């Protein structure tokens, strides 16, 4: 309470002495003046509702600025463009927040083409003149928002170069799928990972609001952060925003100095603590602990243009050191690696290198590419290709290690793709390098802390800092391999014969493949019992009477043909016979896939089968169990399982039921 009173007194004193300083203090920005000009695309390719969303984005963003006429406050101007440019207002026209908000609301949608070059040229020549409100000692920032390619790319690049040479820091925001990343990079200041932002649509602007606010703040704050950087020219701020290359690196995390999001269960970014330092064990101990604990480990490395080739080599050295602690062989630990920028580049898969020497040689030869940072696309490609079930082993831990130094092009897509990978049961470590990392995004990529591993997201201040992580990461990988090995082996003393039953003609090609994929995952788990559990499939191959010779008679179609009763009948009569692999002393179980409910005929066949001591588990299509009759037929409520969109949950449920036996 005493501290709160002291802070309030201090804040009131600040307000009395320096009006407007308090908001600067709370913003996390210093009191250097900022002159910010927005260049807004108002062409016909933008729908009116999207143009309004763009204006709303500006209102929300500028609401947090310390707007005012004093020497330490922020001024804002806006220029719109289509075929030509239009000045909405200069820097010295809207000098308080209410006037600014009202002026933004009144900006009109011009419609027309996309002449970005003329708009940037006009801003470079006119908007930062003293008579238009610019100040000689201000930090000058331009924020360009566009949804498409400009008429004249060369002219746009030349105009942007002229603007930057006038000591203006330029952000370029691309909206939608028709943007040209190279053109955005030609507009923006360097590094592009800091000054280029992309969103999938205008609603996505809200997602980067706090990011852009922080980055404009950093442009202002940069001269006071780096002691070696002169503070005499705004242009020097650009160099200080690159990741530090000093060797005094630590694993750290900090709270965002701008806005706080609602409290959610996010993985914390790992901090350096005495406990973490104690994990710096020698290589021999780690190698010993990893021995005999197989895993499929995949590295996904950022090779975008913001990373210097020398720093990229440090990434490879880090990977080589971590891999060197594993026991590499086809039946123990296997390693794959891909790189990404705006493209996904597979280097080698899990099945390619079977010994440590050849693997380390392949890691050293991975090339640097440069480009943008499309993390979401890389995660999608990895999940669908190199780290799909076609190439991973079902009974070992699946571990992905992502290294990146910047915000991805499409943060929402990155979040969604990371979630899809984690739903497959893979564990994801995310390592952020440098000061340009979005900590929320890093946490979204990483797995959530659990009872076995308390942290999956890490940040180091620079690429040299990766050395502080190598032993920690190796130990945590071994820990996952250890407990996951136990989780992926069915340990039972019971013998069971299990048949999976579904009507493939009813479900069709797409759903049948989903069911077969699930059956394959479960059967792989049950196959680890050493023969105690046998599995099989009872299904049909085509519709009844689906072949008919040519005839002049009308075709009669049997509607809603229900094959499930006959499938269950065949199951009861044939499938558990010794001639078909059945064992007289084993527990007999049937896993039947149903849609909403069973027909009366199917119910009768289930009851007849139960009389033969065949136990039933039903898998109901959909995210929840809705049929109480199924639960009654099964005998217990938990013997009816929902086939959820997250099939990993369903697989785990079935694994537990079938391994333990009924």
Automatic annotation (TrEMBL):
GO terms for cellular component: extracellular region. InterPro entries: ECM_Assembly_Org (IPR050525), VWF_A (IPR002035), vWFA_dom_sf (IPR036465). It holds the Pfam family VWA. Keywords: Glycoprotein, Repeat, Secreted, Signal. Residues 35-212, 296-473 form the VWFA domain. Residues 228-269 are annotated as: Disordered. It comes from the Eukaryota. Residues 1-23 form the signal peptide. It is found in: Secreted. The keyword Protein transport does not apply. Its main location: secreted. Residues 228-265 have a biased composition (Low complexity). Gene3D superfamilies: von Willebrand factor, type A domain. PANTHER family: COLLAGEN ALPHA (PTHR24020), VWFA DOMAIN-CONTAINING PROTEIN (PTHR24020:SF84). This is VWFA domain-containing protein. It comes from Mytilus coruscus.
